[in-house]
Amino acid sequence: DKEVRAIFLRLFAQLFQGYRSCLQLIRIHAEPVIHFHKAAFLGQRGLIENDFLTKVLNGMAFAGFVSERGPPFRACDLFDELVAFEVERIKAEEGNPPKIIKHVRELAEQLFKNENPNPHIAFQKVPRPTEGSHLRVHILPFPRINECRVQELLQEGLTRSQGAPPATRGDKKCVVPAGPPVGMF
């Protein structure tokens, strides 16, 4: 699973290499708008006649990609590092399948580590109760559950969560590395 994701990550990093140099931040609106200059991107890469890339850039998924990844100050991730710093490595590996496979495996391992930062915690074993623990007098029996009170608490929580903003991860924000300009490719 992670290796397939790494292959696609690498593919999209190659496909969109240098996209940041074609982003324009328009500040005339109350909320700044990020615009992607498609013609400049395709022209600088010499791909004006490429139907596939033109259709990708015109799609809704790419518009979402630009709005999400366009801001110059946000939480960075593995894709940003690939686009900004791995240009030469990806170029050098183009004709060498063993090097490509090695890089894909490295990326897959990084993806795994990003999703499982503390793998030892996820596999903790719950200790078995000691022999005769159920006969101990000092342990109080579990109280009966009041079904009406449980329903009230659930309803209260649902009401609160509907009015609350969606939860977001507390990622550390930084200036997104621009990487090399498009003209290099």
Automatic annotation (TrEMBL):
Residue span, UDENN domain: 1-76
Biological process terms in GO annotation: regulation of Rab protein signal transduction
Any Gene Ontology CC annotation: cytoplasmic vesicle
GO molecular function: guanyl-nucleotide exchange factor activity
Species annotation: Phoenicopterus ruber ruber
InterPro entries: dDENN_dom, DENN_Domain_GEFs, Tripartite_DENN
Name this protein carries in UniProt: Myotubularin-related protein 13
